[in-house]
Amino acid sequence: MAVIVEQAAPQAQTRSAVLWLIPLACAALGLLVRFLAYANTVDAASVANFAEGLCRWDCGWYVRLSEEGYDPFPVPSMINAGNWAFFPLYPLLVGALRMATGLPTMVVATATSILLSVVAARVAWPLLGREIRAYSLFCAFLLAGPFAVYFTTFYTEVLFLTLTLCVFAALQRRDYLAAGLFAALVSGTRIVGVFIVLAIVLQAWLDHRQRGGTRPGFISAVLKRPDILVAIFIAPLGLFTYMAYLHWHIGDALAFSHVQRAWGRATGNPLMYLWNALTNFPQGTWWPTVSQQLGAAWLVGIAMTIVMAARRQLPAALFCLVCLTLPLSAGLASMLRFVVGLAPVTVTAMTLLARSRVVYLVSLGVILVGGYFGTVGWLTGVLTLV
């Protein structure tokens, strides 16, 4: 027995080292691929300007937010939008690290995002079924894939994805208190993050029923579990804290929602938005329109959600359904980013692609090649990526 234990220890250490080496290797490869795309696309490209050069679209809002904080009301520059739509946790983190290190904002943000992506990959290992092919695909997708700019520059997707993985990894261990703590951070990262509390409640319900509990007895059973009760109550704490700040700062606790009008995001029928997007056919070309591509991205997200439900991963499926449906009710803008940043969707997709060795190898190649062209598209203004 002692011999078996002695042999198992080095094997566990080797596996742990491999699980860190894979995302680190993908991080290095991703940096190289994105720099080559940057150097071949941007005039006067240089290593010194690389991090700043990849800062596009909403990234500029996050940089200013981390350096200057939230706008007062009215906005001094008299633009038609304040920066209240952008949730505070990641800009606060980057701003604190910038002040601590004295480094430029985008250098700090890039390094932090890459580190978070590496951590996210490691946290996802048990959620990927501890399957090395799915794990390597997930690492490549985050750190070197066609949408790696979301996870390696200055966007909240990387923190949102990492914290979401932490919540579901904690729920997998039935560590409700840890899940609640991570959920509180998720709710301070993106507007839909608060709905992860639904996954915690549903997991508690499923556990209750599995133990033979009755429907009427669920509430009393939760009241006898301080860990579940605390988790449910602290899960929305990030959102409530931000709302309290906005109320104090500009007198509108819901400014993050009200300001969406400035971007033309009017609430409507989500099915009508989807139908209009998918039927917006191209003129004079075979390539799908931007709206069709965004609609297809939403459909992929829903397909992965259905797979989760079929696998009885009901808390993840519920969370994804809410996170996909609510943004759709305001249109398809940024939908691709929302889908690929939804951790359970990406995890599920990678597990499907890893089932066949041939599909796995092809997928890995496509992901890595896509890392170059995705960066080129990002730098040249492909609107689907915005």
UniProtKB/TrEMBL annotation:
<comment type="pathway">
    <text>Glycolipid biosynthesis; glycosylphosphatidylinositol-anchor biosynthesis.</text>
</comment>
<keyword id="KW-1133">Transmembrane helix</keyword>
<feature type="transmembrane region" description="Helical">
    <location>
        <begin position="137"/>
        <end position="170"/>
    </location>
</feature>
<dbReference type="InterPro" id="IPR007315">
    <property type="entry name" value="PIG-V/Gpi18"/>
</dbReference>
<feature type="transmembrane region" description="Helical">
    <location>
        <begin position="176"/>
        <end position="206"/>
    </location>
</feature>
<keyword id="KW-0472">Membrane</keyword>
<feature type="transmembrane region" description="Helical">
    <location>
        <begin position="290"/>
        <end position="310"/>
    </location>
</feature>
<feature type="transmembrane region" description="Helical">
    <location>
        <begin position="103"/>
        <end position="125"/>
    </location>
</feature>
<keyword id="KW-0337">GPI-anchor biosynthesis</keyword>
<keyword id="KW-0328">Glycosyltransferase</keyword>
<keyword id="KW-0812">Transmembrane</keyword>
<feature type="transmembrane region" description="Helical">
    <location>
        <begin position="227"/>
        <end position="248"/>
    </location>
</feature>
<feature type="transmembrane region" description="Helical">
    <location>
        <begin position="17"/>
        <end position="37"/>
    </location>
</feature>
<keyword id="KW-0808">Transferase</keyword>
<protein>
    <recommendedName>
        <fullName>Glycosyltransferase RgtA/B/C/D-like domain-containing protein</fullName>
    </recommendedName>
</protein>
<feature type="transmembrane region" description="Helical">
    <location>
        <begin position="360"/>
        <end position="385"/>
    </location>
</feature>
<feature type="transmembrane region" description="Helical">
    <location>
        <begin position="317"/>
        <end position="340"/>
    </location>
</feature>
<keyword id="KW-0256">Endoplasmic reticulum</keyword>
